[in-house]
Amino acid sequence: MRDYFQNKAYPGIRSFVMLLMAGLLLVACEREYIYDIEEPVSPDGKPYQSIYQSLKEKGNFTNYVRLIEDLDYKDILSLTGSKTIFAADDSAFEEFFKSNPWGVTAYENLSLSQKKQLFNFSMINNAYTIEKLSNYYDGQFHEGMAMRRPTALSAMDSVPFETQLPESPYWDAYRSKGLYLIKDNVRSTGNSDIPLIFFSQQFMDRGGMTNNDFSFLSGGKIRETDDFHIFNSKVIERDIVCKNGYIHVLDNVLVPPVNMAEYLTSNSEISIFSDMLDRFCAPYYDAAHTALYKQLHPGFTDSIFNKIYFSLYGGVYAAPDGTPVSLLPFNPGWNAYAVLSTSRSAVYPDVAAMFVPTNEAMNNYFNNDITGMLLKERYGSWENFPENVAISFLKRHMRTSLMESLPSKFSKMVDDQNYQMKVSEADILKEHNYMAVNGEVYVTNKVYTPVDFISVYGPVLLSEDTKVMNWAISYPSDVAVDGTPFAFYQLYLNSLVVKYGLFIPSDEYFNKYIDPVAYGQAGVQGVLKYWYNEEATTVNATIYGYNKSTDEIGDSIGVIRDPAFLQNRLWKLLDSHVVVGDISKDGYYITKSNDIIHVQNEGNSIQGGFNIEKNTTANVIRKFKQENGSTYLLDSPIQQTLQSIYSVLGDLQKDDFSLFFELLNDVPLDFVSEIPPIFTARGMDYCVSFLNAYNYTVYVPSNNAINKAINDGIIKTWDVINGLPQSERKKETLNMVRFLRYHFQDRAVFVGQGVINSTYDSNTLKLEEDPSSSHWGTSANKYYKLGVKSVDGTIELTTESNGKARVITKKGYHNLIAKDYVFNTNTSLPSNFKNVDGTGAAGAAAFTSSKITTSSSAVIHLIDNVLTFK
After folding, report:
1. Across 677-814, where does the E strand assignment appear?
2. Beta carbons of 770 and 836 less than 8 angstroms apart
3. Is 189 helix (H, G, I), strand (E, B) or coil?
4. For residue 586, with 0-12 CB atoms within 10 Å meaning exposed, 13-18 middle and 19 or more buried, which class applies?
5. Most CB contacts within 10 A, which of 64, 332, 652, 868?
6. Which residues, at least 6 apart from 713, have a Cβ–Cβ distance to it below 8 Å?
7. Global confidence as pTM
8. Cα–Cα dist 556/758, whole Å
């Protein structure tokens, strides 16, 4: 613009020029103007006209000039301000009066509200050339990255009185009498200006948008390189310089579109989807805009409300009465959509998109698609979808970025859980697409099934009997890089590249889960009954007294409402109920948490370690075959063992374990910094110190085998070692500990599991420099190995020294399951926490502050020989 200025002062408009230049500098972030006190003149030396004068003298903008005059903008556009005007000439108005959304056939028939909409929506309250319109500044300069600007049109320019209201109960109080309603979230953002969307060549190049993309969005309008469009209207004459701004001429009259939510509500062909969406909005009293409207309209005595959607972005997180609600990804009624902006007030770089199935597509899905038919069988109608199911369905069809949802990017498009959308151009009824002020509505002939419905998580989400575990799975306990909360377990179980066996206790039977910390108490023990609190939409747990000696449950002691405690326990329980891989036959399986479960009765009966000890089972009520595995609904939780390796080996009833247990337990503490003991006090009682959140096999040489090894000079007793001189004691202590650790094998293997023929790492390091003596060719500083092979109905072991041993299949001495817990810190024992009724040692932490941090599981077998690596 400054190329047209000449060095001639006009003091009468000096203040205007300074204001114009300041606006250009701050908003457009253009270069500093040196003519900040001079009136611009044209190349022929004549002063530029004002916007009003220019339009008036052209003679073919009579309708637009009438808008200016009727709305008292003549003086404003003649003398002051810096404006950008998108004007339509009389020929464009002639076409407008032939066909328009309002059915108006002549200028004289336009209402005051319609005039305001036509004029204010065509004006930006700063001066921009077409070239500069796509630049913006939000702390740093972004060149060519803008696609929107706020106009002079405000949501307050037209506040309709509404009597057709959404069907949800939030609107019942106003259903018979109606209410004045703003349909934009201006209450919380403070920004009621309605933006326009434009497409410059620079923006399209930077955003990877093609001419075909634009044509698709605009319902078939052809675009050529360097064209500039405001929505679907083409700029046919640009950068008409005026002393108070710029005029750009459009080929059509610019009628303000509504936002996405309003469009959905107004289109009867997509009413099923729209009605589902409107379940997640409510009216909120807007005191500030009520007061403002009363100032502008003194005769107004009513109240103004705001229609706001429950959403993560641009909406509200609670119903009008404060109760928590399920959240959409974004508010489709938010005009100033700014999800991807660094500032909530910046409306520039992107808008949203929605893929909205027609009613015909929705009904076809219910009646012909396998998943849709199951949903119809379950719920009967779309209106009966529970909130969490409806949210999952809606989220699949809502996109936070139009620029990532262009037709040229359909093949790469993924949903919020990173799963492919599988949208094709043939799915879109492009003649029905709608470009709203805050995004693009793609009208589709297809429903996009959420991964939530087809994964192993689906039966949990869709069942009325699994609300406890659904709460645990969908609990938003993690935060993405962009700060968005997400539910890790939901993403995990929705992975379609992995097979799962997911066991889910039914709510009805979730009445006896023995908590490890409560079980380990010497005082008052307890069991937990988890239940879903409908009123608070969360999970609670009732504590009942429990006697572990008799396995009897007593009266209720209290209720736990702490979400951190509940999430910790239910996630650990969930970890122990997930098997990665197919459950194709009966046998032992390792869960996600390395717990051991036993599947029997053709997959219909499940036992954890505690179930095996007590001869109980968790039975399958119903099995669901899903795309990434199977979901099993159970009549009780799978109860994992509450015995540590220490307590199983130290069991006085198992005499054949006693000598090996004594060797493990009696490691001297003289050299503890260099040779740590096998057992350390933590978890239920004692944990094996060198195990690390995995599953293991412990081979226990029988007492006969230990005595033979002592008599043959293979090992020494601790009495002998402790009587040696100091230097020799240390060497022999190390040898003994290494000998003992060689009996701990990485990975659990079971007698009767089928053919086994493999080698596994033991839990001791090979430190010899010369590995040539190793039967398995183990190199220096690597773990020794054990050969494991099924022979004659048992397991045969081959050691590094080529020694042999077999599992003794004596009842009660093989396939024994143990678990080493770690609570809060490595030194935590149940006694560090109070009893479940709040009693306990002085200084002990509250029971609800206890957490299970990790665990290791093991299967234990008695063997007929010691294992040696030398």
Report:
1. 679-682, 685-688, 695-701, 744-746, 757-765, 783-791, 794-798, 804-806
2. no
3. helix
4. middle
5. 332
6. none
7. 0.81
8. 50
